[in-house]
Amino acid sequence: MPEAKHPDDEDGVQIDLVSAERLADKATMEKVRTILDGVREGNIVILEEGLTPDEESRLIEVTMTEISPDEFNGIEIETYPQSGGDDGGFLGRLMGSDSDKKLTVIGPANQIETLHKDETLISALVSRE
Amino acid sequence: MGLLTNLRDSISRAAATLFSEDEQKRIGIYGPPNAGKTTLANRIARDWTEHGDAIGPESHIPHETRRARRKENVEIERDGKTVSIDIVDTPGVTTKVDYTEFLEHDMEEDDAVRRSREATEGVAEAMHWLREDVDGVIYVLDSTTDPFTQVNTMLIGIIESQDLPVLILANKIDKEESSVQRIRNAFPQHETIPLSALEGDNMDEVYDKIAEYFG
Q: How many interface pairs between A and B have CB atoms less than 8 angstroms apart?
């Protein structure tokens, strides 16, 4: 996040809550870069509306190219699961459903651990490495 | 002369395009690491190819498969018909690779670092194949583990978004802790077929479904 004041000397974990509006006009790679730049600084990035499947695919691919031993192990990512699969998938998209736009939490793999996840709750433990 | 050659080439290209639907369908075997994708790919290759060669080495250590491997012209016979496909065994997909996990498998640090680097390249390659180069997907899950993971949810979403036919296989049913129902509950929008690729259990139904979905 370019505008954010980075807490270099502090002992906390920065959380970036990114609005849907902020990502709306960005191209896929700009979104991926926004996420990975934040995560690689050790931040937890929370997207109000998540990513499309194609964007998720690119995020995995770019994450893999950036993994480096003892430096960056990749990402932990969580969204709420689709409930029963009846509101997503092909039919949902055909009907213009927005149900796949779900809040998404992304963080460095070595700093975030999912404790519990169900259709309405994501509970995660975040550490300062 | 040049004109005639060009014309002949154009006709050849048009004919090739016209008959392109006869091209071999590429079926990608996808899933998380250690689900048994290569064990399945090898079983299919042994059952249905002339020399029965293995597609790749199998291992209990994650990320044994670090390159996508294609086996061409796998001809599966069902009900008097032959379904011909290419099988693409892909590296297990994940969002993280930590080389220190390989050290737990008695691996030297240099080997672990190299394996992790190759694994990350392999995952990126698998994602590229999924976006560009497969016509259908066999999604393999280990039925002894929780299928409600973010990687599984994302990959099934990516496959659905491309409207690719997908067959979900619940592998390792030979193990006591296997639960096929847990996988059916996780992805109720798709058909789930139980099997043990290692023991060859229920392979007849698997081949019936491969012919039905991808034939």
A: 90
Which residue intervals of chain B are DSSP H helices?
2-18, 37-48, 100-103, 109-132, 150-161, 180-186, 203-214
Longest dimension (CA), chain A: 50
Q: Are B161 and B51 in contact (CB under 8 A)?
A: no
pTM, entire model: 0.86
**Structure tokens given for B4:** 């005639």
ipTM rounded to 2 decimals = 0.85
Of residues B94, B116, B128, nearest to A69 (C-beta)? B116
Interval B130-151 mean pLDDT: 95
Quote the Cα angle for B85-B87-B88, to 5°.
140
Report yes or no: B169 and B141 within 8 Å, Cβ to Cβ.
yes
- For chain A, residues with pLDDT lower than 70 are 1-10, 81-100, 129
For residue A32, give the amino acid letter. Answer: V
| β pairing state of A104-108 and A44-47 | antiparallel
Which of B154, B159, B166, B168 should be substituted to probe chain A, the one whose Cβ sees the most A Cβ atoms within 10 Å?
A: B154
- In angstroms, the separation between the Cα of residue B145 and the nearest Cα of chain A is 16
d(CA B83, CA B81): 7
d(CA B215, CA B209): 9
> Could you give phi then psi for residue A90, rounded to 5 degrees?
-60, -45
Q: Which two tokens stand for residue B206?
A: 């698997």
Cβ(B147)–Cβ(B38) under 8 Å? Answer: no
Q: What is the rounded distance in angstroms from the CA atom of residue B98 to the CA atom of residue B91?
A: 16
Question: Which domains, from first to last, does chain A contain?
Answer: 15-126 (3.30.950)
pLDDT, average across residues B64-79: 91
* Alpha carbon distance B107, A13 (integer Å): 34
For domain B23-214, give its CATH number from 3.30.450.80, 3.40.50.300, 3.10.450.50, 1.20.210.10: 3.40.50.300
A63: nearest CB among B95, B148, B190: B95
- 3-state SS class at B189: coil
